[in-house]
Specification:
Blueprint lengths: L3 H11 L2 H15 L17 H20 L3 H24 L4 H44 L5 H4 L5 H13 L3 H10 L3 H9 L1 H40 L4 H37 L4 H12 L4 H15 L3 H27 L7 H15 L3 H27 L3 H4 L20
Helix pairs in contact: 4-5, 4-10, 4-11, 4-16, 5-9, 5-10, 5-12, 7-8, 11-12, 11-13, 11-14, 11-16, 12-13, 13-14, 15-16
């Protein structure tokens, strides 16, 4: 024992001086007066580190949404386009040797050439034609106008519609009263709002620019972001993330390809048909037909009404030809093009589609035409997956219903015990 004490004493002497200095500073900090009173003897934390981290992430997310809410619409639009065009982007990457920067640049150029520019040109022509419509409405509201001949020529309902025209539209001031009843605004204010669309065009161009910038980085860094999202999703939803991570991209791709792109194509094809048939304002009617094509049954209703207008105005052959063309085009799209693009028709109910369109346009503007239906499709698909899990959980296990074999009991040997009398 006497030999151990000098060794321990020498070990204590060999400790570095920085350790001793640190211990002295810790003692001084413990003995120093505190602003909020003495330290409680219990060291138990009121909030666990995991809970504190989660609340901190929630607060950071709320602050980010508050400061960057103006960029939510272009970011959502870029994510939707990236999900829908990701298979094409993968093919581009294979052609350029896996260079993500070059692949993202080529993908942005293709989107500009085949999506953004045609939509911008059509919107420009449509706004010009809408100004002519509103100018005509202002003139009729000021001086009045008799019912058109094509309304009088409609069989069965021509006289009734002509009478309604005289009372609701043709009289001086009637259009202003009708617009005020429907929208609560004066027709002059609506005309000024349409003229002010030129000022809003700069905001739309700025939003498009932000969307393209965000889309470039989504293409370039999408793979690494997806891996990080998978790690986080498996931690948050360990039992459901694997299926949700497959359902969400498939839903977005099917909705954009099966609804949005096909609706744009139908608007272009039927708009050209309107122009060939001699319909006034074919670009505006083509845009309206494309928007209506997002709703189930909207495209047939649009070209049917235009065909009726042509036949009632005296162009019988043009009206019949337009109706036949629209019917054949719709049949080809639904039976051949749509199944090849999305593997089958999208079974999205009418009401969610309609609410997605109206709500998207009201909250996000022009881009809401494409984002709104996608968000509603996501909600419906997640709801259906939830219902599927509930139904599968209610089905009894067939193995549990099979009768279990009885356990074998050991043979009992009965012996006769003889007793002597």
């Amino acid at each position: 024992m006497h030999g151990i004490a000098p060794i321990a004493h020498s070990v204590r002497l060999k400790q570095p001086e920085s350790v001793n200095v640190r211990k002295k500073e810790d003692r001084k900090l413990q003995d120093a007066p505190r602003w909020l009173g003495p330290v409680a003897p219990s060291r138990t934390a009121l909030v666990t580190p995991i809970s504190a981290a989660r609340w901190l992430l929630v607060l950071i997310a709320i602050a980010a949404i508050y400061f960057f809410h103006g960029f939510i619409v272009p970011v959502l639009a870029s994510l939707v386009i990236a999900f829908a065009s990701w298979p094409v982007y993968r093919k581009i990457l294979n052609r350029v040797g896996g260079n993500t920067t070059i692949g993202a640049t080529i993908a942005i150029i293709l989107i500009l050439a085949f999506l953004i520019v045609p939509i911008g040109i059509a919107a420009t022509y449509a706004v010009g034609e809408l100004r002519d419509w509103i100018g005509w409405a202002l003139e009729v509201n000021k001086h009045g106008a008799p019912p058109p001949d094509w309304i009088l020529a409609l069989p069965g309902v021509g006289e009734w519609l002509a009478d309604q025209w005289v009372h609701r539209v043709g009289s001086p001031g009637a259009i202003g009263e009708l617009v005020q009843i429907v929208s609560g605004a004066n027709i002059g204010n609506i005309y000024r709002a349409v003229i002010a669309l030129g000022d809003g065009a700069f905001h739309l161009l700025l939003t498009m620019l932000f969307m393209l910038i965000a889309l470039f980085f989504v293409f370039r860094d999408g793979a690494s972001f997806t891996r990080q999202l998978d790690l986080l999703g498996e931690r948050i939803l360990p039992a459901r993330w694997e299926r949700i991570s497959r359902v969400v991209p498939a839903t977005i791709s099917s909705t954009v390809t099966g609804m949005t792109l096909i609706a744009i194509g139908e608007g272009i094809v039927l708009g050209i048909a309107y122009w060939l048939a001699g319909v006034p304002s074919p670009v505006t009617l083509g845009v309206l037909t494309g928007v209506m094509a997002l709703i189930p049954g909207g495209a047939p209703l649009s070209f049917t009404l235009v065909s009726v207008y042509l036949m009632a105005s005296g162009s019988l052959f043009a009206g019949i030809a337009l109706f036949v063309w629209g019917t054949v085009e719709l049949f080809i799209v639904d039976k051949t093009v749509r199944p090849k693009l999305v593997g089958g028709p999208i079974k999205l109910p009418f009401l969610p589609t309609f609410f997605g369109l109206i709500g998207g346009v009201k909250t996000m503007g022009f881009l809401g035409l494409f984002i709104g239906p996608v968000l509603m499709a996501l909600i419906v698909s997640i709801w259906r997956e939830w219902m599927r899990e509930v139904e599968l959980s209610d089905i009894p296990d067939p193995m549990a219903l099979e009768p279990q074999p009885m356990p074998k009991t050991p043979d009992v040997i009965v012996t006769k015990q003889t007793t002597a009398v």
